[in-house]
Amino acid sequence: KMSTSFTPRTNPRPQYPPFPKVLSQALYVHARDMALGCGLAAALWPLYSRARASWTRSDREFYCLVMCAGHTLTYVIFNGTLQLCEKLGLFAQFKMARKRAEEPTKELYKQLVAEAAVSHLIVSPVVAFGVYDFARYAGMPLTSASIQQPWVVIGLTFMAAHSFNDWAFYWFHRTLHAKPLYARFHKQHHAFRGSIGAAAEFAGPLEQVLANQIPTVGFTLLTGQHALIQSIWLVLRLTQTYEVHSGYHFGETWAGKLGLTANGASFHDHHHTENLGNFGAEHMDWLFGTMDHYLTMGGEEGYLKRREEIGRKVAEEAEKQGE
């Protein structure tokens, strides 16, 4: 039975993982963003500097270019690659199986493409154009300025942005699951019961602002970070949300073991297929007691086994129909 409950609970309640394990996982993902963020900043600064030096238009327009390029290129490259892999049958062993009722329809795909085009080609540039004034007011330097902060401060900035996103997303998202709000403001996103990466931002205007934009860019905007730092954090956050919506579980791959993947795909996939808790990062749901159903199912191991069973049943049904 599907639920839109603000506080989904089982009776009796399951035993939650021990605090040290949850804390270590939370610290790990924060440290990962610090390392990846600093690495990308060092690698991209020469390219960014050359592009800015050759730019002849306004500072505002370059800011829009940097932010929109980070958003759109990440969306197209990440999700386009996954779609191509699915067509070619690559990484099939990491794909979480879907019931027939969980597969997106052609009409839903068409709606997704149309809304994504409007979002990336119209809404994002307009938002970035308008946000520029606020960013400058908050202390953002001109895009032509160098990054003055020491590396330790830059690293801590990425960690703080991650934490800000965890808290803001969890509470905005969980609030949208309250019954008075769910049908009107959040149900669109759950139209993809078997979620795909490209549908991570498939949402109405209010949800886009509250659960997507504010948690994602809020910290770097409010603290007046350099445009390159803002864009890099945006890319890091987008790749994470695209992956956890992708339907692929890469946790056991070499990339997953090196910390190069989000490793939360099964956790959020459960949120879409079961719609019973798992509102945000795993440590947030642990802290506020909203992962009962996931744990009752056996956590990650139990959920992945359930998906394997579903895959076998779907294959058997297809084989019978073929006969």
Walk me through what this model shows:
The mean pLDDT is 95. The protein contains 12 helices and no strands. The longest helix has 35 residues, at 19-53. The protein is mostly helical and 323 residues long.
User: Tell me about the biggest sheet?
Assistant: none
| Rg (CA only) | 20 Å
Spans of 5+ residues with little confidence (pLDDT < 50)?
none
* Helix and strand composition category: mainly alpha
Shape: globular
Please tell me the overall pLDDT: 95
What is the rounded distance between the termini? 32 Å
- Beta-strand content estimate: under 5%
Helix content: 55-70%
Describe what is shown at a glance.
By secondary structure, the protein is mostly helical. 67% of the residues lie in helices and 0% in strands.
Task: Write the topology of this structure.
Layout: H1 19-53, H2 59-88, H3 106-137, H4 151-176, H5 179-186, H6 205-222, H7 227-244, H8 254-257, H9 265-274, H10 282-288, H11 292-296, H12 299-322
Helix pairs in contact: 1-4, 1-7, 2-3, 2-7, 4-6, 6-7
